[in-house]
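Person: Please work through this fold.
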Amino acid sequence: MSVGYRILIHEPDAELRQGLTSALSGTTCNLVWCNDYAEAVALLGSAEIDIAVVSLSPDGTGSRIVDQICRVASTIPFLVATPVDQLEMRMLGLDRGAVDYLIWPYTADELLARVSTVLRRREGSRERFVRRGQIVLDRETGRVGNGSTWTVLSPKESTVFSLLFGCGDRPVSKQRLRSALSEGGRITDNAIEVGIHRLRVKARSWGMQIETYRGVGYTLKDI
């Protein structure tokens, strides 16, 4: 893992937090601990956090914190941690925009492995050109094409296409799209659906199709 990454870990369980603190004390990453949801949201909104791990509560509090994370820090990747029997909470976290999950109680090695994978993926996504088969997405100019012929995307189309392009077969939820597109304003489901409809036409011209998974999200697949 790269030196200097700041990882926010929200973990209310004092015993688990103490064990993780001891096990992670020799790592090169900078750990920011908190045990309160409000504190976690405040840190994400004000501190330079690169990635967050948030423990979800089955009492419903967890869903609210995920929504707040999406509002205040839509560009920060986060993982959710739940007990093994809380499948519904894990699915909720993934649907709301989490990039991965951990089963509570998790070990320091598992935490670092999952976080490292996400951060490596994030570093790769910063490249200007992203390739998928013969198709190239130019993130800087918002164009998609084969290197010689291009289709120009609007800024919002480029944002949506970039998310779909980089997620492979994993669906991208409306919540995640809404967070990426909001820019401080309100984006309705209807606006997202209209944007997806227009983007489908452009994607089809390059041999790709956007599929809708009702209640889950959208994926970009090769025709």
Summary: The mean pLDDT is 81. The two ends are 37 Å apart (CA to CA). The longest helix spans residues 108-125.
